[in-house]
User: What shape does this take?
Amino acid sequence: MAIIKKKKIPFKISPKLRAYLEKYKREIEVPIEYEDLLRYDNSIALYDRKGVDTLWETVFYPQDDMRDIYYALKKIYSVIKADGDVKVMDHLKIDRVDVCTFGNTQPFRVRIVNQVNDNFDYFYIKNADSSRIYGLELEHLLSPNRISYVVHKETLIEEHIAGIPGDQFIKHHIQDKRLNEIRLAKEFVKFNERCFVRLLGDMHSSNFVVNVIPDFEEVSYRLKAIDFDQQSYEGRKNIYLPQYFKQNNPLIELGLRHMTPESVKQYQKEERSLIANRLRVAKYRVVDLIKTMIGDTISFPKNVKSLRGELAKYYQEDSFLKCENMGELVKMSLWMVIKKPDLYGEK
Assistant: This one.
């Protein structure tokens, strides 16, 4: 069982990471920062349609501030959705701004509505944390999912990642008779492998979403990470394996019912092969990112020392023991996908 005992320590954006973000157009100018959203003077608890507390609070701003803040938020939306074309703003309105005081980073969530058809969308504004930025970038480059985010000074702006929250999917959908249990179990195996290879931790059911994708005969599933704070931070190997979080046990049980060890290995090999292909396609950008990580600090020496020992034992590869930081461990882990493509199975 995987348990994280201590709160994650955030790390500031380093000059090298800032240079990387500028090079790949992730650093932009926007008219508002995270600190500006803290100027609210009142808030109320936000409940879902069933009257359950969501742990988010809807915030309200003084009348003098609200007009400027809402206009700036619409401008941000135009930047991340339409390359800054302000013409798209005319029919948009800010429906509400929520804050999650329960979360480590206390993010703000902005709900924006199209007044023509009442369609709505979300985006998030957070304090920038290097770990999360590396996690977002690795997800964008090495997973099947494209990630839209930008940074302005110490503010991180993220597009909403749509899907059914994993914990809600397990609670309300996993007993559905129409559920394709085999395909869902297969996707969890592949998701588990993706997280482990790029060292993304803390993927319990509250930190990923499930996409249900109609097929011409059946449905398929895609698991997407939505929380990247624990990218290459913890010192225990099992933290990077969703299979060890008790919240995910219902998904594990599906696998035990429907898959043999041989089929699990097949799906693991398939995913590692896909990651290897993505590495080849995005080779130069991945190299830039890993060089930046190696020159950065996103964890503590005791965590690095502990994790490198566990990874060296698992991969039977002493080269891990020479790694001095998390960037080098990620580099070595990715190299194992190419060097030892057949080393997979029980972790």
